[in-house]
Amino acid sequence: MKTKLHFPENQLSFDNEIVQFVEKNNSNTGSTHRKVAIIGTMNKHYRTIYLDLHDDFNDLDEFMRIELNMQNRLTDLPPIQDIHAIYDLSDDDLADDDDDWI
């Protein structure tokens, strides 16, 4: 598991908790199987998390939902542009967005 900050201006106030979780759970297998997008302020994608193993996804999903109260907008949906999950804080339906997160 690793992460990359793309747009710091859209960073969430608790972004350091996400980074700490990724660093703590870094399996470092060298291969990336899934990508996860994090939506920050202004409903913009600001961070990507790269997952090595399926278990990484389950651990990350639990952390994002339970600890940070974030929602996965792709639950039960296929990946979008190689992104397997999109987490944000809003209760709005993703279908209402105009793909600003891309």
How many distinct beta strands?
5
Give the terminus-to-terminus CA distance. 21 Å
**Unreliable sequence segments:** none
Output the strand order for the largest sheet: 1-3-2-5-4
- Mean pLDDT comes to 86
Number of helices: 2
Q: What order do the SSEs take from the amino end to the carboxyl end, as H and E? A: EHEEHEE
Query: How much is the radius of gyration in Å?
Result: 13 Å
Helix content: 10-25%
Strand content: 15-25%
Q: Quick one: biggest sheet? A: 5 strands, mixed
Label the overall shape. globular
SSE topology:
Blueprint: E1 2-5, H1 15-24, E2 34-39, E3 45-51, H2 54-67, E4 71-72, E5 85-88
Parallel strand pairs: 2-5
Antiparallel strand pairs: 1-3, 2-3, 4-5
Description:
By secondary structure, this protein is α+β, with helices and mostly antiparallel strands. It has 2 helices and 5 strands; from the N terminus they run βαββαββ. The protein has helices at residues 15-24, 54-67, and strands spanning 2-5, 34-39, 45-51, 71-72, 85-88. The protein has a 5-stranded mixed beta sheet, covered by helices on one side. The two termini are 21 Å apart.
Q: Which terms summarize this structure?
A:
102 residues; alpha+beta; 5 strands
